Amino acid sequence: QVKLVESGGGLVQAGGSLSLSCTASGRSTTSYAMGWFRQAPGEERELVAAISWGGVYSYYADTVKGRFTISRDNAKTTIYLQMNSLKPEDTAVYYCAVGPTVHRLQIGVAMVDSWGQGTQVSVSS
Predict the structure, then answer these.
(1) How many other CB atoms are there within 10 angstroms of residue 125's CB atom?
(2) Contact status, residue 109 vs residue 98, Cβ threshold 8 Å
(3) In angstroms, what CA-CA distances link 74 with 36, 55, 78?
(4) Are 23 and 5 in contact (CB under 8 A)?
């Protein structure tokens, strides 16, 4: 079981930037993809961005393309989400997640092996 610890998030005005990070521990022999889901009040949890084990392949939801960037460190245990040009509709709890592949994470929450505790991102208009 992978343990995920998130940091970052907070409150920012529309048009501003925030960054999130997530560090994985507890699983060193199997490759895995990592990603960020978000869940707004009353909404389903949705995949925002994901990155492959080697960091070569990434996925972005249409709503964040061109504004968010996901990256992974050389040790492959930490991922980052740089969020620029934030909009009020980006307000949500953001969850770090681990799954077998980016494609599996795109399928949805049922494919997630482990979740982080969640961090609040709030964007004021």
Answers:
(1) 9
(2) no
(3) 18, 9, 8
(4) yes
Distance CA 87, CA 64 (A): 10
In this prediction, residues 6-28 reach a mean pLDDT of 93
Element (H, E) at 107: helix 102-107
Q: Between the CA atoms of 23, 27, 30 and 35, what dihedral angle is there, to the nearest 10 degrees? A: -30
CA–CA separation, 119 and 125 (whole Å): 20
Question: CB–CB of 116/3 below 8 Å?
Answer: no
The yes-or-no verdict on residue 30 having pLDDT over 80 is: no
What 3-state class would DSSP assign to 75?
A: coil
Of the candidates 55, 53, 52, the one whose C-alpha atom is nearest the C-alpha of residue 28 is: 53
Phi-psi region of 104 (alpha: psi -120 to 50; beta: other; left: phi over 0): alpha
Res. 31 pLDDT band, cuts 50 70 90? confident
For CA atoms 48, 52, 53, 54, the dihedral sign is negative
